[in-house]
Structures are given as C-alpha cells and as structure tokens.
Amino acid sequence: MRKSIIFLFLSAMLLTTSIAAGVDIPYLTGRVTDNAQILSSETRKSLTESLKAHESRTTNQIAILTVPTLNGESIEDYAAAVFEEWKLGQKGKDNGILIIVVPNDRRMRIEVGYGLEGTMTDSMAGRIIQYVMTPKFKKGDFAGGITDGAKAVIEILEGGKVQEIADHKRNTAEKTGFLNIESPDMTIMERILFGAFIFGIIGLFTIIGILTPGVGWFLYFFLIPFWAMFPIIILGTKGAFVCLVTYVIIFPLAKLFLKNSHWYKKAKNNLRTKGKTSIGGFVLSSGRSSGSWSSGSSGSSGFSGGGGSSGGGGASGSW
C-alpha cells in the first residue's frame, strides 16, 4: 500500500510538471488570435472578414493562431490540442481548419478536421505551406504569408485552384545541377532516399553488365527501359532523358575500353573453358543460353525491392 501511494504521488508530480511546462492553449476570442503579435490590426480585420464570409457561404470554420514559441513541444500535438479545445467546425460535419504559426520556432501547420480531409488533403495542405506561405515567411512577411495561406485554403475549400501552386508547378519547378533539369515535387531528403534505392539497384546491375563478358550485352539492352523510366521519380522527364542518353553511350564505351584488358580477357576465357570466373569477389557462371552470378561460393542470389509511403492528418512545415 505504501509503495502504491508513493507511486501515485510521483505520477501526480510528473503530470503536474508536464502540464506546467506545456504551452497554454489560449481562449478562442475570434477567428484570428495573434498572440505572437506579428499581424497589424488592419491585417487581423481583413482576415477576420474573409474567414467570416467563407463561413457564411460554406459553414466551414477556419481559425488562425500565432504563438511566439512552443518551448520544444511538438507543433502537431499542440495544434491537435488547440483544435480539440476550440472545437472548430460544425458538430456532425467536423468542417474546421486551424492555421497555426510559431515565428520564434520557425514552424507552422494547417490542421484539418475530419470532414474536410477529402477536400483539403495532406498533400494540398503541404503545398500551400511550401509554396504559398514559406516564401513570404523567409522574407519576414508574416502578414503576407498568413493572408495568402488563408486565401489558398479558402480557394481550395470552395472548389477553386490555387494560382500560386499552379504557377509553381508549371513555370518554376525546382532546378538541380548545372544541367538545369526540372525535378518533381520532392524534398531533398526524399530525393536522396529514393535516389539511393533506385540508382543503387540499376547502378549495380549496370556495373555487373559492364564487367561481365558475354551476358553483359544482354544486361545492356535489358536495363534500357529501367534507365528510361525510374530516374523520372527523382529527376523528372528531362533528367531521365539525360540519364538514358548517358547510359546508352557510356555503357558500350566502357565495355569496349575494358575489352582489351588482361583480366577481362582472362574472365572471358574462363567462362568459355571452365564455365565460370571470378570478378571482384563475385563468381560468374555461364550456360548455353543464360548466365548467372553469385557472391563467393554460396550459390546464386537475386535482388528485389519495394517501397511505400505514409501520411498524417494535415501538414507541417518550417522556414
């Protein structure tokens, strides 16, 4: 019993400390709550009128909140707590949206009610953050970023299209490298991860094809469609075209260059006379009409791979 009392006491202490350390949820005093004081009175009034007019047309409730800092608290958890406390949206419709900006933490989020997730998808919320709000915030224009972000949200909810996003996708796609290649809508981290997977797989088989006598030419033609399509995910169509042209030219040149090397001739001779050879630790064997390869003497081995994606409700961002 004594241990139970001590445990309950310590748990209560930890809970009290956690609550005290957390950021307070402000009272819902209006459609725009500017606790960070980054908006002028004219901007707050204009935003309030726009959000009120939208609610009159659609019954959707959009609220804007700014707080100076979250003191290390997750913006996703804080936004969800504010949303729950403010009970945004109509009962039974769950058609509320919260736009929250934390200037000192350089974080923002668009929290979306269940009833609007089909219209304001996570992807669209992320695009508004990335392409509409973030550029203004980077320039210190909080009023412009919040105003344009709210306008974009309203346009999407009312069935329109966000012009800034459309223009960005059509005219200002990100450029990579000195080739001025258009790249798809992916973050740097996503490109690195997907690129490591895709180019790691087809790159490995390309090297095997270059180093392998005989069957290497089969791999050359076999890999052409892979070099034509897979790089589109990372580099876009122009980037994929450059990769394909590079592959088509470099592969045969590399094989012709290696053709007269001593080890290449030796490997070719071993394949013809012994039916197998070793290149770089891999044991290659050939048959009448096919070839295979394995590492060491453990037998043949193959490669396969896959991928997936996941998402949450709404979207977050930083600048």
| Cross-sheet strand order for the largest sheet | 1-2-3-4-10
Q: Give the uncertain stretches in residue-range form.
A: 4-9, 14-21, 170-182, 287-312
Task: Measure the end-to-end span.
Answer: 53 Å
Apparent shape? elongated
Radius of gyration: 29 Å
Reading the helices and strands in chain order gives HEHEHEEHHHEEHHHHEEEE
Written overview of the protein:
- This protein has 319 residues and is an alpha+beta fold.
- It is built from 10 helices and 10 strands.
- The protein has helices spanning 2-21, 41-58, 75-86, 122-138, 142-157, 163-171, 188-211, 215-229, 232-258, 262-273, and strands at residues 32-34, 61-66, 96-102, 107-112, 175-176, 181-182, 276-279, 282-286, 291-295, 315-318.
- The strands form 3 sheets. It has a 5-stranded mixed β-sheet, with helices on both faces.
- The two termini are 53 Å apart.
- The model is unreliable at 4-9, 14-21, 170-182 and 287-312 (pLDDT under 50).
